[in-house]
Amino acid sequence: MHNIRGNKQTQATGHEPPGEDSPQSGEPQREEQPLASDPTTPGREPEDSPKPGPKSSLTISFVQKAKRQNNTFPFFSEGITWNRTAQEKVAALEQQVLMLTKELKSQKELVKILHKALEAAQQEKRASSAYLAAAEDKDRLELVRHKVRQIAELGRRVEALEQERESLAHTASLREQEVQELQQHVQLLMDKNHAKQQVICKLSEKVTQDFTHPPDQSPLPPDAADRDFLSQQEKIEHLKDDMEAYRTQNRFLNSEIHQVTKIWRKVAEKEKALLTKCAYLQARNCQVESKYLAGLRRLQEALGDETSECSELLRQLVQEALQWEAGEASSDSIELSPISKYDEYGFLTVPDYEVEDLKLLAKIQALEVRSHHLLGLEAVDRPLRERWAALGELVPSAELKQLLRAGVPREHRPRVWRWLVHLRVQHLHTPGCYQELLSRGRAREHPAARQIELDLNRTFPNNKHFTCPTSSFPDKLRRVLLAFSWQNPTIGYCQGLNRLAAIALLVLEEEESAFWCLVAIVETIMPTDYYSNTLTASQVDQRVLQDLLSEKLPRLMAHLGQHHVDLSLITFNWFLVVFADSLISNILLRVWDAFLYEGTKVVFRYALAVFKYNEKEILRLHNGLEIYQYLRFFTKTISNSRKLMNIAFNDMNPFRMKQLQQLRMVHRERLEAELRELEQLKAEYMERRTSQRRAMSDGCASEDEVEGEA
């Protein structure tokens, strides 16, 4: 114990400078000696030794060490001088705290060692006490044997540890040999690398000499070669500096681009929000303006033909409203979707009517169309475009049916229509058929060519593609109609086919695609004799429509029947050309999107929806002539395509194809019976007329004979 204490004390005081007095370090040893002799005399204490507690001895030792610490630091040898700065004082105190912390750590380690030594001494003391307290030699012998067994066990452990040490030493020697071999291998590689570097340097020098001293020239003097080499080195250094400058500039520009991109994104988001808000405000403005114009029209109707100051003022307001354009109000205003003269398919946005009242209605309609377009741009049109863009290959499905009913975006419509047409005519389509029909038409003139030529100038007078003299659409339309007249000789040409083919040309733009679209409508979608000379199927559909209107809109039909209004005068053309002359292009093409997929049922749905859309306006009219005048143009007043679509496909349900076929069958039988009866009456009339003519000729002959005799 004394040796352990002495070694630990020397380690703890190893930081003291030389020349320190040794008696101070010996005092703690003398104080710890009674602890060391304590196990040898259990239960007794020496009479001459003092009895300080462990706490008092530790306190004395710490005080003595603190004194030694004070004597070791030059900062405290003669006291802290007053001319020292506060920072030096703080540094000295921190150093003293560090030294005391290290000393405390060493003291803790010493206490742990002493605890272990004390435990070992106490175990020996207990063994000795048990040995001395044994009453017989047998018990003492057993204790001795137990110790011998412990010694033998410890010996075996020592042997095992020795063997492990030898194996580790052997392993270490093997590792050293491997390390030496690797070092030799590395040395060889370094030598090879050095040799290669020397070869490369020599080759580089040779290449440099070849460049600086061509073989056909005399070698330059050493000074010139050195100057050339130095200039090349300077150029290389300048190039390196330039490269570094460019890298720095590139990093700076990249950071600037990143910042500008972030600013641009924020500005784009703000611009998008402002455009949305502006669109909403413009839509509201269009609605207010249309309501204002509608109010002017109602006032004009209420005043009638009266001549007064109010009527003159009203007429002036109407003229100003017709001449005023939103773009002229402020030259700096933002136009999101201005009312241009023509729409995207070339149709006039505001029809050019000669009657002033109709001009006012056209302006109201244009404003309403624009307001609905602006309001539905973000809420409906953009999600619909995203759904169409996400749609892959086209296959018949319920999802495709719903998308077609909602309308096909303009950028996807040609592709979708070609697929729908091919679905209808794939059993009729043959390669080169269209070109063969055109060549047949060039060989000889078709009987319907004259009628086709007359109808070309009547096709869509409100569309710039068919009215412009330099447009190629009239020629394309002529070729499509002539090819169809050769394709289907039973029909040849019927008035109305020109408008069907024109719509197909406006969307598909290719002649052959428009030709097959016309074939699909006439020969696969519509009933067989829809465009025949008698128009039998067309007349049947008019009677079916009357029945459906009586079922779906009984109040409206009763009102029309009260005023003896025949709807077939208005609706016959709807079915013949599939609303081509009736609805505005935005709604018309949505009708065709569903019509090409579902068939004629869509035409019935939209015909019912048109009357439902304007039912209240029709019920306000109580004169047959006024009703006819309103029905003549009321389809052009429909501006909300989503509302019309919702009425057609939701409010008109249930609408079963089986019911439609049954009604067609019933009315066809009735119509054919009426036609047979009409033919019979015709034949009877012709017979009667022939007999009358024969009798008249006989009478005339007898009178001539009488005159001849006279």
UniProtKB/TrEMBL annotation:
<feature type="region of interest" description="Disordered">
    <location>
        <begin position="689"/>
        <end position="710"/>
    </location>
</feature>
<feature type="compositionally biased region" description="Polar residues">
    <location>
        <begin position="1"/>
        <end position="13"/>
    </location>
</feature>
<dbReference type="GO" id="GO:0031267">
    <property type="term" value="F:small GTPase binding"/>
</dbReference>
<keyword id="KW-0343">GTPase activation</keyword>
<dbReference type="Pfam" id="PF00566">
    <property type="entry name" value="RabGAP-TBC"/>
</dbReference>
<protein>
    <submittedName>
        <fullName>TBC1 domain family member 2</fullName>
    </submittedName>
</protein>
<dbReference type="InterPro" id="IPR050302">
    <property type="entry name" value="Rab_GAP_TBC_domain"/>
</dbReference>
<feature type="compositionally biased region" description="Acidic residues">
    <location>
        <begin position="701"/>
        <end position="710"/>
    </location>
</feature>
<dbReference type="GO" id="GO:0031410">
    <property type="term" value="C:cytoplasmic vesicle"/>
</dbReference>
<keyword id="KW-0175">Coiled coil</keyword>
<dbReference type="InterPro" id="IPR035969">
    <property type="entry name" value="Rab-GAP_TBC_sf"/>
</dbReference>
<dbReference type="InterPro" id="IPR000195">
    <property type="entry name" value="Rab-GAP-TBC_dom"/>
</dbReference>
<feature type="region of interest" description="Disordered">
    <location>
        <begin position="1"/>
        <end position="57"/>
    </location>
</feature>
<dbReference type="GO" id="GO:0005096">
    <property type="term" value="F:GTPase activator activity"/>
</dbReference>
<feature type="coiled-coil region">
    <location>
        <begin position="229"/>
        <end position="256"/>
    </location>
</feature>
<feature type="coiled-coil region">
    <location>
        <begin position="83"/>
        <end position="178"/>
    </location>
</feature>
<feature type="domain" description="Rab-GAP TBC">
    <location>
        <begin position="407"/>
        <end position="599"/>
    </location>
</feature>
<dbReference type="GO" id="GO:0005829">
    <property type="term" value="C:cytosol"/>
</dbReference>
